[in-house]
C-alpha cells in the first residue's frame, strides 16, 4: 500500500449504515480481533520479511540458522506491529479525512484510542523482551529506537510539516537491515549499512509514486507530501535522482556478494530505472501517467533484489572479491 482517489461520506452514522455491527457476542468478538490485527498493518510488515531474512543470511553466509531467523522475525514483527499501531493512534484524526485510510480501526471507532495506545506499548515491550532473550540486547534496542523514531520523528514531527517527511522519516523502514545483522552477529558492519541505504534511497520514489495517485487525499488531510506541494515534473525528477542513488548503492554491495546478486542488481536496477525515467518523460510531455504502476514495480524490484541476495548467500559461491583475488 482501491487506489482510486476522491472522497466519500465519512461520518460514523454512514459507516454504521453501510456495515451494521453483528448482534451475536461471537460476531462482535471476531470483529474486535480483526480490528486489533488491522492496527498492526499486516501488509506493511511484509517489508520486514523482505529486509531481515536476506541480511541475516548474508551476515552468516553459507548457513541458515532457521531458529534464530524465525525468532528475529517474530520479535521484529512485534516491534513493527507496535510502531504501526502507535502511528495509527497519532494519525487517527487525519485517517478519517482520507479515502485510503477511512476504514482503519480508529478512524471508524472500532477500537478506543486509549486501548490502541496500550496495545501498541505492550507490543513494544514484548518485542524488546523477546529479542533480548532470543537474539541479543543490541537488536532489541534497535527495535525500540525504530519504534520511537517512527512515532516521534516521522509521524509527529515531520509528516505534517515538511514535504521531505518520507525522505528522513523513511529511515525507520530501513532499520530491519540493522536489526537482522545485529541479531545474527551481535554487531553492525558495513554491508548492513549499505542495505540500510538501499532502502533509504528506495523509499522516496516508492512512496511518492503512491502519493501521486492519492494526491487529493493527502491534500485534504493537510499532509504536505511532495506530490501535494510540487508539480508532477518536479516530483518525477526527484524520483529519478533517488532511483539512481538506490541502484548505485546496490552495486556497492557486489564485492561482498556473489554473481547471483551482482546480476540481479544490474538487471533489476535497469528495470526500475526504466520505469521511473518513463514516468518522468511522460510528465514532461504532459501525458497521462500511471504512478501506481511505478509503485507496484518498486515493490517487485526490492523483493527480487533481496530474494537474489538470499539465494546468493545460501549458495555461498565465491564472492566477487574472491573471484578477483582480493
- Contiguous helical run count: 16
Proportion of residues in extended strands: under 5%
Q: Quaternary arrangement of the chains shown?
A: single chain
Order of helices and strands: HHHHHHHHHHHHHHHH
Return residue spans where pLDDT drops below 50 for at least 5 consecutive residues.
1-19
Whole-Å distance between the termini?
43 Å
The helix-and-strand class reads: mainly alpha
On the 0 to 100 scale, the average pLDDT is 88
The portion of residues assigned to helices is over 70%
Query: What is the CA-atom radius of gyration, in angstroms?
Result: 21 Å
Q: Main β-sheet, in a few words?
A: none
The tally of strands reads: 0
What shape does the CA trace take? globular
Describe, in plain words, how this protein is organized in 3D.
This protein has about 325 residues and is mainly alpha-helical. Helices cover about 70% and strands about 0% of the residues.
Element layout with pairings:
Layout: H1 12-18, H2 25-39, H3 46-59, H4 66-90, H5 92-95, H6 113-134, H7 137-158, H8 165-169, H9 175-185, H10 190-213, H11 215-221, H12 226-229, H13 232-252, H14 259-284, H15 291-315, H16 320-323
Helix pairs in contact: 3-4, 3-9, 3-15, 4-6, 4-7, 4-9, 6-7, 7-9, 9-10, 10-13, 10-15, 13-14, 14-15
Biased composition (Low complexity): 12-22
Protein name: Protoheme IX farnesyltransferase
EC number: 2.5.1.141
Amino acid at each position: 500500500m482501491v487506489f482510486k482517489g476522491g472522497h466519500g461520506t465519512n461520518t460514523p452514522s454512514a459507516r454504521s449504515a453501510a456495515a451494521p455491527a453483528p448482534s451475536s457476542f461471537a460476531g462482535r468478538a471476531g470483529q474486535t480481533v480483526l480490528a486489533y490485527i488491522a492496527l498492526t498493518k499486516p501488509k506493511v510488515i511484509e517489508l520486514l520479511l523482505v529486509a531481515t531474512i536476506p541480511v541475516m543470511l548474508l551476515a552468516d553466509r553459507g548457513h541458515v540458522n532457521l531458529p534464530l531467523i524465525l525468532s528475529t522475525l517474530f520479535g521484529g514483527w512485534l516491534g513493527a506491529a507496535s510502531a504501526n499501531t502507535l502511528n495509527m493512534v497519532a494519525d487517527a484524526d487525519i485517517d478519517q479525512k482520507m479515502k485510503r485510510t477511512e476504514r482503519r480501526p480508529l478512524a471508524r471507532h472500532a477500537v478506543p484510542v486509549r486501548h490502541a495506545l496500550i496495545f501498541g506499548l505492550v507490543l513494544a515491550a514484548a518485542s524488546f523482551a523477546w529479542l533480548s532473550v532470543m537474539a541479543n540486547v543490541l537488536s532489541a534496542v534497535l527495535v525500540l529506537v525504530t519504534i520511537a523514531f517512527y512515532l516521534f520523528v516521522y509521524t509527529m514531527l515531520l509528516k505534517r510539516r515538511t514535504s521531505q517527511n518520507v525522505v528522513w522519516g523513511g529511515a525507520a523502514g530501513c532499520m530491519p537491515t540493522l536489526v537482522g545483522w545485529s541479531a545474527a552477529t551481535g554487531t553492525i558492519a558495513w554491508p548492513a549499512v549499505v542495505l540500510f541505504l538501499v532502502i533509504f534511497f528506495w523509499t522516496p520514489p516508492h512512496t511518492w509514486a503512491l502519493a501521486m495517485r492519492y494526491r487529493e487525499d493527502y491534500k485534504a488531510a493537510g499532509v504536505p507530501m511532495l506530490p501535494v506541494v510540487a508539480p508532477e515534473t518536479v516530483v518525477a525528477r526527484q524520483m529519478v535522482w533517488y532511483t539512481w542513488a538506490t541502484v548505485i548503492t546496490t552495486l556497492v554491495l557486489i564485492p561482498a556478494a556473489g554473481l547471483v546478486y551482482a546480476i540481479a542488481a544490474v538487471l533489476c536496477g535497469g528495470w526500475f530505472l526504466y520505469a521511473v525515467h518513463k514516468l518522468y518523460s511522460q510528465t514532461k510531455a504532459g501525458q497521462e501517467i500511471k504512478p501506481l504502476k511505478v509503485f507496484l514495480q518498486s515493490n517487485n524490484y526490492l523483493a527480487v533484489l533481496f530474494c537474489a541476495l538470499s539465494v546468493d548467500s545460501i549458495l555461498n559461491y565465491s564472492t566477487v572479491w574472491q573471484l578477483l583475488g582480493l
